[in-house]
Design brief:
- The structure is a single chain.
- The chain has 16 helices and no strands.
- It has 385 residues and is mainly alpha-helical.
- The longest helix has 46 residues.
- The protein is elongated, with a radius of gyration of 23 Å.
Length: 385
């Protein structure tokens, strides 16, 4: 759940907790930088400085577009920027290093006993799917363990999975493009990886994200375990099929797997996103009826919050008076309040403070934002906070 940064209950955080949070963020940033340098040194050794430069350019240049598309699916209730960056950084650094070490070791161990070719096949088709998807899943499990309130539904699981998958794919592409530069095949590899399959890793890891999101909503512990394990196994299976189709079955095998499995899976994920978006708006309409009865929200405003079309019209009107940012914050705050209510009703709330305190803080923020929006629309100065 993504609370507005200026909500009162966030300012009540103790100095000790803030210090621990800052230390954790700084440590994580340092760790990401160190691991990122380790990967770059590895690529430099594989492809030389020119190959590294070409690989970085080809992999990083389209990354903002992929990230923007990934974030687009969760625009009604955007997740905390720090957590999204953390998921991306984990995928781009720690998960890649774990995969490099363990996959290389697995290939060498199997190769020493059964031959180099067998070792390579094992590393690519067995070890890589298991190690890489498990490494990527670790950050999703950390979110599930310590920031469960951020996972309001399947959509949130998909967003975090997309971030960690895109991070992994970006760094992996640096390596593949760098190697291709040495062999003179950058264009071909870029078309295959950057055009035809830029979302392969996010699609694999989406299975884990869905499983973890379902685990959050489950009441029985055994169902939670089944959801998480099932999601991870689904990610491993898709990843293994992808690697097998590209490495063993040849061009025709890859094309068949691409058209018959991965395109339908990608479409199914898009359908799931559409369903989850509708569910979010339905939750807002259901949980905020109380605000209409108390007069905090006009009935028309609740209808606007529950409709994507009316939301867009409201943002356009707000833009004309320079209040688009205020309107977005109003939408997000209302959505957050609705999810808080849903978590409290279902007994899933595990955040700091009581749900009642959080609820009151959100209502206060909604009232303040409405007053600012009304003042901006009337051309008057905003009321004091």
């Amino acid at each position: 759940m993504t609370a507005a940064p200026d909500l009162p209950f966030h300012r009540a955080t103790t100095g000790t907790v803030r210090a621990e949070s800052v230390a954790l963020k700084v440590g994580g940033a340092i760790g990401a930088v160190v691991l990122g340098l380790v990967v770059l040194v590895f690529v430099l050794g594989e492809a030389g400085p020119i190959g590294l430069a070409i690989g970085l350019f080809a992999a990083v240049l389209p990354a903002p577009l992929y990230l923007a598309l990934g974030l687009r699916i969760d625009r009604y209730e955007p997740e905390p920027v720090g957590m999204l960056l953390g998921a991306f950084a984990w995928g781009a650094t720690a998960a890649v290093v774990i995969a490099l070490v363990l996959n290389t070791a697995a290939g060498l161990i199997v190769g020493s006993s059964y031959g180099e070719q067998t070792g390579e096949l094992f590393a690519g088709n067995v070890s890589a799917p298991i190690v890489e998807e498990t490494a990527k899943a670790l950050v999703l499990l950390a979110i599930y363990r310590w920031r469960r309130n951020e996972l309001n539904g399947v959509l949130d699981g998909l967003v975090y999975a997309a971030m960690v998958g895109l991070g992994f794919a970006t760094t992996e592409n640096v390596l593949y493009y760098a190697r291709a530069a040495v062999e003179g095949q950058v264009t071909l590899v870029f078309v295959l990886r950057g055009v035809l399959s830029p979302f392969a890793h996010p699609v694999f890891t989406a299975m884990t994200g869905i499983g973890i999101a379902l685990a959050v909503q489950a009441r029985q512990p055994e169902v939670r375990v089944i959801a998480v394990v099932g999601g991870l196994l689904g990610a491993i299976a898709l990843h293994s099929l992808w690697n097998t189709s590209t490495g063993l079955l040849g061009g025709l095998g890859f094309l068949l797997a691409y058209l018959l499995v991965f395109v339908p899976v990608f479409v199914a994920i898009l359908v799931t996103v559409g369903y989850a978006r509708r569910r979010e708006l339905q939750t807002v309409g259901r949980e905020l009826r109380h605000e209409v009865r108390t007069g905090l929200l006009p009935a028309g405003e609740l209808a606007a919050l529950s409709s994507p079309t009316v939301r867009r019209h409201a943002l356009r009107r707000a833009r004309k008076v320079g209040a688009k940012g205020l309107r977005k914050r109003f939408h997000v705050t209302a959505t957050e309040l609705a999810f808080l209510r849903e978590q409290a009703h279902q007994g899933r709330y595990v955040g700091a403070g009581s749900p009642a305190e959080q609820d009151a803080a959100y209502q206060h923020e909604l009232r303040r934002l409405q007053e600012e929006l009304a003042a901006r629309a009337a051309g008057a100065p905003p009321p004091p906070p």
